[in-house]
Structures are given as C-alpha cells and as structure tokens.
Amino acid sequence: MIRALATALALIAPAALAGDYGAALPAPISAETCPTDTTDWTKAALERSLTPQLGLPPVPHPVDNPPTEAKIALGRKLFFDRRLSINRTMSCAMCHVPELGFANWELATAIGVEGRSVKRNAPSVINVGFLSPLFHDGRDPALETQFVAPLVTRNEMANPSIGHVVAELTHLPDYRPLFDAAFTAPASLDRIGQALGAYQCSLTLGNSAFDRWFYGGDEAAMDAAAQRGFELFTGKADCASCHLIDADHALFTDQAFHDTGYGRRREERRQNPPASHLVQVAPGVVHQVDFSRIRAVSAPREADLGRYEVTEEPADRWKFRTPGLRNLAVTAPYMHDGALTTLGEVLEFYNMGGAGHPDQDARIRPLGLNPAELADI
User: How many CB atoms lie within 10 A of CB 159?
Assistant: First the structure.
C-alpha cells in the first residue's frame, strides 16, 4: 500500500536512490552501488555545482563566493568533522547522513550533543543550494551564515560562541593548509561559511524519472499511474499551487510559509497529551507506556510556533516553509517535526483537509480523492 501511495511522488527521486516502499524505511544507500573516483571527487563536485542538471535551474552561487575545488574540499571536511562540537562528538553529517539521503530516517527530530532533543526534523541538504531562506521557519537567508546557529545552539553542537569555533580551527594544524588552498588566508567566520556553502551547493541531484518525462520528453520514463498522479497533483489535488513546477525546472516549493493546520494540531496535542504512548523498544517490539512515565524521564516538549519565532508577527503563528519534494522517497520522515513517517500518512492528512482549523491556508481543504487517485499520486 505504501508503494502504491508513493508511486508518482517517488519518481521525483532518481531511480538509483529509490528505497523499498514496502518497508517502514527505505534501505540505506549502499556505497557499492555508487561509483566513485576518490582521486577526482572535488572535480566532479565542482562540475555538479556549475552545470545545471535536467529539471534543476543553475545553482545561484553568491557573487562573492564562486565555488572552487579547494573550497568544496574544505567545506566537506568541516561538514564531517566532529571536533566542531563542544565535546567533539557531533558533526553536521550526524544529522544530515549521506547514506540516509543527507537526512536521518531513524529520528523524527534531531538529537544534539549528549542526547539533547531538538524539536524539529533534520531536513535533507540535497539541493539545499537552491533554497532561500533556510530552516523550517526561514530564520536565515544563506548557507554562508546558516551554519552559525547549529554550532552554538545548546541542544545541537553547543559551542559557547562562534569565536570559539574559529579559534579551534585556527589551532588545528590539518586545517591551515586547506584554508590557505581555498582562501590564501587562515580560518575566519566568513571563510568557514563560504567553504560550507560551496560544499553544500555541490550536493545537487536532478535528472529524475519525472525530469526525463516532463522536461526530457521521454514518455517511457514514468508509467501510466504516475502520469495520472501528475494530473491530479497539478489539478484536482492542487498540490502544485505550493509545490511549484516551472516551465524549465521544478524545485517543488514556492519557498513561502503556510499554515496547513498541522502545526496548531501538534500544539494542541502537546498541551493535551494522550494518557499512554506507543514506544518501540526494539525492531518490531512496541509497548503502550503510560505517558506519566515518559514525562518523568524526559524534558518537556517545546512549543513550536514556526515562522512566528522569526518575525513575532501573530499572523505567522504555525506557518512553516513549503518543503521541496525532490528525493522525498529517501528523506522520510515528513513534516517539520517528523511525526508523519510515510507518504501515505501525508496524503491522508491533506486529503481530509488538514487539521480543519479556521485560520489555515484556504488551499488546505478536503480533496475528495478516492483510493485509486491516492494510489496514483
């Protein structure tokens, strides 16, 4: 059933990355199935960064940060380096795991140093170079500055200040030649951001089955069910009014913020938790646990007001950015808090009209899609 519900949406992801939709989670991406040239990977990364792929626009590199192989190599090392956290245990890649589509299938919300909980899901950074602003609430406009918050936030990498991180990098001998190669200068706040931005902008992935069908004119790239799903996606279901498809490319997002009713529903559940909760203690082993026991050993769940936390405008309460749909078959779970684990659950939420709150976006309404139509979408 999950496979059927995901048919059309899964084809937004390249076939090489498609997982097993019959399981709760797709299979991890295997290094054995990904041909690599470890001696020339920076050249390939730079080429991806500079060459538009079918279905994607050109990467909008900042004028003051043109990509180079040296910047990408430095940015990759920074991305995977656990020494950038306060206790040298966490890296960017521990929430954005390459084998898990640069997301994390195993956690609804991210976990920082010492097991500290984060209230939001870690989104994939594939194709992140096309997005602005960033984060679920749009709190930062650019990759070159986005990295600061995770480094200093207490429940993420927990450094006491960004200056502390710069000082650490200045004194690590393996970094000096890399900064010299990329910038002919030592580590600094702006150079760290430029290197991380250059690396993440190289993580582009287009040329999916959808791209080959819609933009490449290959009628065989998508089967009849998926093509019917596309007609519903752009028509009766009206998904494309927020998940945009342009004439020459598709990021499947309007990069805007909407109240779908989901955020307010989750807040109501936070304030009125159930008496018991299902807890998985081992694969396939689930217990119904009294919620008071969970509360006794947990920090209180934080409220999440979405875009309001950035603007403090009452009208922005519970608004979250429209996620792109590329590679979503390998970037579960879904929604800003990762509480929906399958595409079927997401489709069910929107088919019933969201949460039904009076202030939610008018486009979120009962869709009346029948099982066959849901299967096609």
Answer: 21
* Mean local confidence (pLDDT), 228-233: 98
Q: Tell me, what DSSP letter sits at residue 52?
A: P
Distance (Å, rounded) from C-alpha 138 to C-alpha 116? 23
What backbone torsions phi and psi does residue 352 show, to the nearest 5 degrees?
A: -85, 0
Is the four-CA dihedral 347, 253, 327, 123 of positive or negative sign? Answer: negative
Q: Residue 110's CB: how many other CB atoms inside 10 A?
A: 22
Q: What is the mean pLDDT of the chain?
A: 91
pLDDT class of 157 with cuts at 50, 70, 90: very high
Domain 60-201 has CATH 1.10.260.40: no
The DSSP-derived string for 346-360 is HHHHHHBTTT--TTS
Of residues 215 and 117, the one with the higher pLDDT is: 215
Q: Note the residue count of the chain.
A: 377
Is the distance from CB of 241 to CB of 362 less than 8 angstroms? no
Give the C-alpha distances (Å, rounded to integers) separating 193 from 146, 165, 166. 8, 12, 11
Rounded-to-integer distance, Cα 178 and Cα 23, Å: 42
CB-based contact 109:337 (threshold 8 Å): yes
d(CA 156, CA 164): 15
End-to-end CA distance of the chain: 12
Give the integer Cα–Cα distance in Å for 273 and 262. 16
pLDDT tens digits along 311-356: 999 999 999 999 999 999 889 999 999 999 999 999 999 999 999 9
Q: Which residue has the higher pLDDT, 6 or 249?
A: 249
Tokens of 276: 């018991």
With 80 as the cut, is the pLDDT of residue 20 above it? no
- To which residue do tokens 């730079």 refer? 46
Residue type for position 233: F
